[in-house]
# Entry
Amino acid sequence: MAKKEAKPKKAKVVKKAKAVKKVKKVVKKEEEIPIEREPAPVEDWESLTLPKSVFDQIAIVAEAKKMNKAKEDSFRKHVEEKYGTLRVESGEAVGIIAAQSLGEPGTQLTLRTKHYAGAAEVSVGSGIQRVEEIVDGRSKAKYPTMTIYLKNGLEKDKNKAERFAKSLIDVRFSDISKMKEDFAAKKVVISLSEDGIKERGLDDKELLDKLKKSVKNAKIRQRKLNLEFVFSKREPLLRIRRTLQKQLNSRIHGVRGIEKVLVMEEKGEFVIKTSGSNLKQILKLDEVDTSRTMTNDIMEVSDVLGIEAGRTMIFNELYNTLDENGILVDKRHLMLLADLMTFSGSIKGIVRTGITREKKSPFARAAFEETVKHLLDAAFKGERDELQGVVENIIVGQPVKVGTGRVDLVMKRKSDK
# Structure
């Protein structure tokens, strides 16, 4: 009986062992098989009207929307038609078309230098001057502004948002005080403004203590919000003036460069609009949503967030400025301009000191501005022009290498017969 009972037990163990072995084999096979797709033959893709990446996207959308074969084919045809209308022909002079597409509607832009965002008069650059500012790649915006998004509950509470906004304003002693000088008696009186202190939520005692500590070698008398400094007769007048001016220009609180603030409600949350910009310091604050906060100063964005962020800002600012004036320009023209200004790794304007200066062709440099200077420099240095671009070929009277000018050889495929 014992032998008979032992046999089935062995059989069960063997079966389990076999099953384990099978599982192990399957796992090994899955690990060994590399996940790679063989590239399709070139001949197969020549007949297609869409790039492979677009086909992949169509398949993803069709699967997500649970389309049958007929609907997927219809959807693909619609995409092919749309893609055909947007496609740039080989040899197309995209730079010239982009320049014309931006230049012609640019004549319709208003001459308004700025407009105001809200009652607090936060000035925002606008019109043709703003477009020139962007395209020229100027180092500083004329009307820098920021849009600060909040978090930690401040975006829902207006009082907290306003309190935080006031703490951002760059306040100096000169903003809340007046100074009277009596050089004959070597006496100076600094009067603090009660309204200015209340408006900015400051503590008058702290301010008076700071002034007392900062000015030395003088007798100080205090009358409410007035401080009287009496210096010795031996003290030079120039030193007295420098000491007090330095103190009046010192910052009490706030972020450097933020002149005005305005709390506005947008899409159910409170947002701070500022006049003046300091992106680097603002992003360090815990109350600020760093993923959405932005400034219209393109150079500052490029310095703080990198050249790709600068490229995006050039595109966004150009598009918004044109859109405000009711001008519709194809986004690809703006993208081409943004790429041209940033491809070298830093923002360079379409001016003689920017993009034009870096062109290899002496004729191309001479065609923009300072013609004689560029030609003389090229002659002195013995530069050689390869005549690869549009401008230099026009100057020497050769066919331009765009459109039909690019065709050197016509080739027939077997499928064309």
Q: What stands out?
A: The domain at 359-406 is CATH 1.10.150.390 (DNA polymerase; domain 1). The first strand starts at residue 114 and ends at 117. Residues 2-32 form the longest helix (31 residues). DSSP finds 17 helices and twelve strands in the chain.
